[in-house]
Amino acid sequence: MRYRLFGPTGLRVSELALGTMVLDDPREWRRILDTYADAGGNVLDTASAYGEGESTLGTVLGRRDRFVIGTKYTLSRDAKDPNAAGNHRKNLVLSLERSLRRLRTDYIDIYWVHIWDRHTPVEETMRALDDAVCAGKILHIGISDTPAWVVARANTLAQWRDRTPFAGLQVPYNLLKRDIERELLPMAEAFGLSVTTWAPLARGVLSGAADAPAGAPGPSRFDPATLTARERAAAGAVRTVADELGAHPAQVAIAWTRGKSAAILPIVGVRSAAQLTENLGAVELTLPEDAIRHLEDAVEFDPGFPSDFIAQCEPDPFVFGDAATKVDARR
């Protein structure tokens, strides 16, 4: 694998991240980590809310300093305690200390805000995160599942007040779920953020599992008989492209996701080393333009207002004058 810089920082991260949400069998996870490291992978994604995932990762992880560990806070540690959830300082401090203990480390490479908390001022969150960075317990910060305007405001405040800004954004993204193309992805690219994307296989729909008979055993999280017409269209297009290119459907789906922007770092979640090896093949796959068109034509996506309106206006001389089509874009 090759490496990219994490957002505007100097941290080197591999082009595929490894999700650890389904950590269960320690022996198999040692094999998975070895396979991932041997391929050059170095980004491990977990969260305080992933059951015993953090603890299991801390148990099986060797060569800790060779990995970039990212974990998250926000979700409740205790449903009966109103202050055991949210993005406020108290929950951040207690969640961070618990994650450090579970992961058996004294620092977190990337600490993610798991989801926007409408009740906590973003100023409080950014100051608390910056304090943890200054204390050496966190090296970099990111934010997940949050509106674009909140992220933009937070990073602008951090810039004005000389505090640590978010370097990464974590969001769902795949051929069936392209919502981030409306606001989140353009915002991240404008701020120079890395975008770690979860569910690149749409929870198994784009992995080839849709071809399995109803009720068949396997790693997918769905019964093929329950798929919608839209999901079947996407799975069929992925299968067609995979057959044409001599690739696996999962590799095609991941390659489509990572090819949409240089900012994107897909998170692959697996249950076996063999499944990981298969998914890692996506980094060697570049989809031709006709394959991309075939995939995107199979599943309608409407960018909505204002994206579609701006795209229509941009080449219009009435809006930007006679030079509307003669200006070269920065990117």
Automatic annotation (TrEMBL):
Protein name per its UniProtKB record: Aryl-alcohol dehydrogenase-like predicted oxidoreductase
Q: Keywords in UniProt for this one?
A: Oxidoreductase
Q: Which domain of life is it from?
A: Bacteria
From which organism does this entry originate? Amycolatopsis cihanbeyliensis
Secretion signal span = none
Residue span(s) of domain NADP-dependent oxidoreductase: 16-298
Spell out the molecular function terms from Gene Ontology: oxidoreductase activity
Q: Listed GO cellular component terms?
A: cytosol
The chain's coiled-coil residues are none
